[in-house]
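User: Good morning. I'm curious how aspartic acid would be positioned relative to this chain. Could you predict the structure with it bound?
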Amino acid sequence: MWAQDWSNVKDLFLPCKNKPSLDIAPALREQNYTAERMFRVSEEFFTSMGLSPMPEKFWNLSIIEKPKDRTIVCHASAWDFCDSKDFRIKQCTDMTMEDFVTVHHEMGHVEYYIQYKDLHIAFRDGANPGFHEAVGDVISLSVVTPKHMVKIGLLSDSAGKKDSEVDLNYLMSQALSKVAFLPFGYLIDVWRWNVFRGKISSSHYNCEWWKLRSEVQGVQPPNIRSEEDFDPGAKYHIAANVPYMSYFVSYIIQFQFHRALCTAAGEYDPKNPLAKPLHDCDIYRNKKAGDLLKEMLRLGSSKPWPDVMAVITEGNRRMDVSALREYFQPLENWLRKDNKKHGAAVGWKLSKNRSYSVSCMSLLFFFCLQFTDVLDWSVELC
Ligand code: ASP
Ligand code: SER
Ligand code: ZN
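Assistant: Good morning! Here's the predicted structure, ligand included:
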């Protein structure tokens, strides 16, 4: 619906269609996974690195299944009750890969709460809001590797064998989640901040929304929209007033954190990425990576975020996409070749012959190539 995560249509884009897909949903079903088991498996990843387990109160008071007797807001969230003891998650967990990743995402928030619980209340927060969104996702970057899925019995041994074609498929699936998200993660608050600034008036809410969706994401609505509709309001974070730029920030810095922890763990060799590529790194059971992450989390918001970032990134104090580019390097190389082979043009065209070739931000350029020439712009822009 939002085109924020394209991995559910990955079958359309897999570079090597003859190679098996790495879906864990069948294994979750066969092994009768429950919500509790997903949460226990997630917790075990954190503790395997020397991080804290979830306290007893967490297990007693969290809601991890959809209640049958009443309606609740099912959007997953994590809560710090600010008494240094009570931390909870609320999630209507489904037995899917997507929710397995969300479990880690939410538990990352709670791990952060636990690590900074003894700081003064004023400092019990993320170094910046993007840090908070990134913790669980950093863990997930290891969890979803085929290598790790084999370790925890959700994929068969054969899926863990080194195979550059399976790797490309895996990277495409990751790119459809992580790279395709970036324009969406960016535009939500561009729209919202322009509303707050008075640059978007209430008579233009929906058309300005679709203008951004067209220009930044390159998607169009499936039927004609008007100001009778209020499409952004259907996004949870807009209706619930949850800031969104933190996710955009998170999707970039999580790769910087992943690179830093993987390097410390000896799971990534920046000098020899072919032998030890970043996308294949799994920091499971690695105490060195755990200590480093802990050191960063324990600072809460007691220092400016660049200082906190520098704790794990060997002095790098800036948010940048170099780690993201390193992670996807093999896919970028393949896309460059494949696009050349098919003579694909970069970007997409807007209606009224407005060409929009600069729409691919440099960090996205390789990705946009895949979706070119398929859009027929029928939406009336403002
Ligand atoms: N709290 C998560 C997101 O909004 C929940 C989800 O991914 O469903 O950040
Ligand atoms: N959890 C956020 C969302 O659902 C970002 O992935 O939009
Ligand atoms: Zn979150």
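DSSP finds 16 helices and four strands in the chain. Residues 22-159+246-294 form one domain.
Let me know if you'd like a different ligand tried.
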